[in-house]
Write a structure and sequence with these properties.
Elements lengths: L3 H10 L7 H29 L5 H12 L4 H17 L8 H16 L5 H12 L9 H13 L7 H10 L1 H15 L2
Helix pairs in contact: 1-2, 2-4, 3-4, 3-5, 5-7, 8-9
GO cellular component, one term: P-body
Protein name: CCR4-NOT transcription complex subunit 1 TTP binding domain-containing protein
GO molecular function: molecular adaptor activity
Amino acid sequence: MVSVAMATTSEKQNNTNPPNGDEAEDSSASNAYVDDVEAEANANFHQLFTGQSSVDAVVEMLSRYKNSLAQRENLIFECMIANLFVEYRFFPKYPERQLKIVSILFGSIIKHQLISSHRLKMALRQVLDPLRKPADSKMFLFGSIALEQFVNRSAELHQQLSDLRTTHPELVTVIDRISSNNSEP
């Protein structure tokens, strides 16, 4: 997966001010640290997509890392979340198995409140917009599977979802249908 950490690294490399000895050492160490964080984030995704790790295990790890006192773990959390948002545009190209995995992960991140505010709004939009696509499209599949993960939070997410009632009433119907299917014994 692509990482915002790479952008940070390239910005540092494009700095026009030549660093003094200490700054060069700090920059080199910082780049290695960023590369290490990105490598670990990518390794976590690799384990998930190859079946070496489950979505539940990754969500639990992300929850720990988000709340960790260790800066490195916070950075891995941020890198993984950022990668999901960056990677979103490539989801239509994912093989179906990997798309289902990332759909469950994406929805679970919302369900377990691992993101909030602006990121939550963006994530909801990235889940709900595909539900306007044809039902046989990969993105509709992504949206419906992701939504199934957090549909039990629909009352709690009322404010974010309320815009849909006026702009996309058909999505509200889909959400209600999925919600009622999930509430059946």
